[in-house]
Write a sequence for this structure.
């Protein structure tokens, strides 16, 4: 069922939904529904799935899909979560809002779920694809690690500057507890990528946020280039000067 809905096979999904349930009290008939293909996503479909007795509608990836479609009815329903049955992946949701520059939805996520949404994630990325790679099957763990790290940098290249500044503000206010040195390293790496949305100004604001809220240090090894080591030194110098005045 989940595979059919995720891949847009509505004919197969509707067939499976229509099969009779011979034992409605058997918990093994509660099949999970985590994702729905964007072309089929609608409030009516969600309500139909929720009402079905043999489906466990956790909808992990659905908010991210709704954000990309700018469907506020679905976003609001999932966020309200009246019966507590939804298990939204807020990292993917923030990643979707950051990608399209949806500041209002990003603000909602950061306000309501500050420690469930960092770092942002790409809803279409599947780590299992990396793990199924032939090189990984040959136990090349270095390759697996490097692929994952490149992906973590790639996600930040798609963050709209307005959402990046919003994230920095929440870090500065102390709302986000676990924005760490490695995440900042990934941000710096993203700023060095071609055709990136990550700007130097956003990098500076994130550095400032981290420095205000935690004991924080970077070394040359943490920085993606000497350019960003110099940016870090400049920001720290400015902070020191402002505090001494």
């Amino acid at each position: 069922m989940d595979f059919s809905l995720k891949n847009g096979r509505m004919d197969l999904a509707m067939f499976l939904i229509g099969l009779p349930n011979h034992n409605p009290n058997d918990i093994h008939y509660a099949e999970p529904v985590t994702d729905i293909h964007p072309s089929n996503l609608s409030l009516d479909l969600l309500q139909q799935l929720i009402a079905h007795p043999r489906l466990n509608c956790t909808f992990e990836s659905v908010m991210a899909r709704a954000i990309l479609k700018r469907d506020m009815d679905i976003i609001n329903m999932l966020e309200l979560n009246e019966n507590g049955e939804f298990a939204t992946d807020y990292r993917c949701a923030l990643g979707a809002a950051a990608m399209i520059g949806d500041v209002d939805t990003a603000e909602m996520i950061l306000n309501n779920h500050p420690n469930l949404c960092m770092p942002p994630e790409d809803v279409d990325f599947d780590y299992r694809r990396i793990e199924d790679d032939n090189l990984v099957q040959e136990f090349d763990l270095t390759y697996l690690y490097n692929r994952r790290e490149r992906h973590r940098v790639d996600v930040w290249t798609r963050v709209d500057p307005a959402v990046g500044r919003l994230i920095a503000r929440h870090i500065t206010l102390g709302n986000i507890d676990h924005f760490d040195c490695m995440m900042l390293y990934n941000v710096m790496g993203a700023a060095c990528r071609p055709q990136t949305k990550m700007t130097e100004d956003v990098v500076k604001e994130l550095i400032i946020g981290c420095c205000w809220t935690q004991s924080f240090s970077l070394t040359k090894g943490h920085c993606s280039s000497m350019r960003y080591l110099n940016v870090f030194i400049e920001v720290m110098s400015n902070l020191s000067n402002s505090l001494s005045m």
Notes: The chain is about 60% helix and 0% strand. Confidence is low (pLDDT under 50) at residues 128-132. The longest helix spans residues 226-244.
